[in-house]
Amino acid sequence: MSEAPRQPLCLALDTTTRLTGICLWQGGVLELRRFAPPLTAGAQLLPAVDAMLGARDLKTADLDLVCLANGPGSFTGLRIGLATAKGLVYGGGAALLPLSTLEVLAWQAPVMDAPICPVVEARRGEVFTATYQRRAEGPVLLEAPRRVEIARLADEVPEGAWMIGPAVATQRDAFAIHGPRLALADDADCQLALPWLAQLALRRWAMAGGVDPDELEPDYLFDFTPTPGKARM
After folding, report:
1. Cα 220 vs. chain centroid, distance in angstroms?
2. Model pTM?
3. Residues 108-164: pLDDT tens digits?
């Protein structure tokens, strides 16, 4: 009797949101770790990956796929996540696949019959968002990703739209004042779920393969203008 085919070994990582993390997936979650905000996650990612793999006598060369939430989100987090992912695939030979942070949030939404508007904080009372319809095979994009003020977004989205994502958890009052037009996900559902990222990435990889690491850039969604630093004396 022949053995069942080996399940692909996938590492999923997210550094675009406030609570960053990594997940090792092979037919299910092998291990999941969460870290501090993206600004401090950079020093923890690679040691954590080494520890997760080492505990199972695995190396980066055993990874079949490295997938990441590639924005929009924290500028610093995006750079840290992409640099880490590229380092892993260059060093071990795994395929690389980026996914939109907004798309993953839409994919994990616990509804099927309403438009889904994932929201990630963009500062200054604004959010990154898009509109999706969830389907069994994955989210279908209805309105392109954009940056918009919360008050304006609440007036623009379809009635009964399902709002999910980190900005719902941190800006719940700002969304709630718009009353029954919006359905707000529970805080527990608003964190980007790494197992959902891994599963969606594996589906896409099976259909279309990975991307060229040399060509991949973070999805900032708009041009980043650094804040001027203080003049040195």
Report:
1. 13
2. 0.90
3. 998 878 899 999 999 888 999 999 998 887 899 999 999 999 888 888 888 888 999
Q: Where are the alpha helices (DSSP H) in 96-210?
A: 101-107, 150-156, 166-170, 172-176, 187-190, 194-208
Sorted by sequence, the CB contacts under 8 Å of residue 112 that are 6+ apart come out as 134, 135
Residues 135 and 82 in one domain: no
The set of long-range contacts for 170-178, using a CB threshold of 8 Å and a minimum separation of 24, is: 170/18, 170/121, 171/119, 171/121, 171/127, 174/125, 174/150, 175/150, 178/151, 178/154
- Domain harbouring 211, CATH code: 3.30.420.40
Kind and range of the H or E run holding 43? helix 38-54
| Euclidean distance between CA atoms 178 and 227, whole angstroms | 33
Map tokens 């040195």 to a residue.
232
